[in-house]
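[agent] plan:
  1. take the single chain provided in the ticket
  2. run structure prediction with default settings
  3. attach structure tokens to the ticket
  4. add a short note for the reviewer (M.T.)
[agent] executing step 1
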Amino acid sequence: MTIIIVFNWNICNRFRIFVMQDRPQLMKYPNTFTDDIIETLSIDCVIFGFKDARLNILLVQHAEGISKGRWGLPGGFIRKNESLDEAANRLLRDLTGLKNVFLEQLRTFGDTTRYPKKRVITIAYYALIKEEDYEIAPGFTASDARWFDIDDIPDLIYDHNEILNYSYEHLQHRVKHEPIGFNLLPRKFTLLQLQELYEAVLKTTLDKPNFRRKMLKMNLLVDCKEKQQNVSHRAANLYRFDENVYEKLKKSGFVFEV
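[agent] step 2 finished; step 3 output follows
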């Protein structure tokens, strides 16, 4: 016995349209959200900088609202028509003038009492930058923006001290297991500058010969065949971090450990 099946494509197409209409989540719609803010969702940015052997944090002073006159992390509410990353970059730019900063999402903070009068959940971002590469310019709802030494942080608004402490502990852990500390240094640096960075982040004193021997043994530093210029002391050799070598070594099982 032979069975012949005949397809009616018009019926099939009508059935497909019916299914798509019945399941709107499968169809693509244009973004019709407005630029109104979401009053229950915010962003806070923890920006680490390094200068003169000191680890610093970028803070802003509020010019208005319930926290007027107080210091806090750069942040604010998210708009309905922007992504989380877009909101983080917009707020950082508008409040501090910083642009083109690579921000990494860190963690969500949602304690029910973290914000007065209403429930607000905040998403923390953080970044490591070279201070000399950026010019700070307070704006939007910030009357001031400046760098603070990590050991001289004022009492911050809401739960920002908690967010900062968590971010700092996260940085301390990562800097011991990943070469992210080089993001805080100039492209060409001395071994002393490198050691001062790790001592500032880890809050410890490192043995100079052992630290240098360990760093050079990893083969991640390239001798630039140059020396410091315009220094009052004996000029030191300059090095740079070779990211390509690190990526190759990592694929072969290399573990960065300080």
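[agent] step 4 note for reviewer: The CA atoms of residues 199 and 206 lie 7 Å apart.
[agent] ticket updated
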